[in-house]
């Protein structure tokens, strides 16, 4: 039986509502496929990709948060989010690595992503191609953030 690692690190675990502290809620869709082309046609590759994970998180403005997903000793996807203190913008870094004889890795990064902006990122290592679509939204109330994350 394969052991799957799904680790979600949240910098916010409190259940109280915050009036003055901005919160950033983020939804992520992660797709994976294979491509034997060194520079594949991304539209065709995405059309054949399979939705694998839909992690969600909430963090405070100015506090880094991370999602890690993978199979131990096979592949690992790490996504790091760094919001501004006011939660209006954030940076996202996606690092994907696979184990062949040694670990091979690739990364993608985007800075100053505004809230409510949908972003699409990709990373390819060998024949493995990973796509990530994400959207973040700023809140001042934890329950409103949780409700938004539960929607869709």
How would you describe the overall organization of this protein?
This protein has 152 residues and is mainly β. It has one domain. It has two helices and ten strands. The strands form two sheets. Strands 1-5-6-7-8 form a five-stranded antiparallel sheet, with no helix packed on it. Strands 2, 3, 4, 9 and 10 form a five-stranded antiparallel sheet that branches. β6 and β7 (89-99) form a beta hairpin. The longest helix has 9 residues, at 142-150.
Q: What would you say about this model in short?
A:
This protein has 152 residues and is mainly beta. The protein has one domain.
General shape: elongated
Please report the number of helical segments. 2
Rg over CA atoms: 16 Å
Quote the distance from N terminus to C terminus. 32 Å
Q: Report the structural category.
A: mainly beta
* Low-confidence sequence ranges: 1-16
Itemize the secondary structure elements and their pairings.
Blueprint lengths: L3 E6 L13 E12 L7 H6 L2 E4 L2 E5 L4 E7 L3 E9 L5 E11 L3 E12 L4 E7 L2 E12 L2 H9 L2
Antiparallel strand pairs: 1-5, 2-3, 2-4, 2-10, 5-6, 6-7, 7-8, 9-10
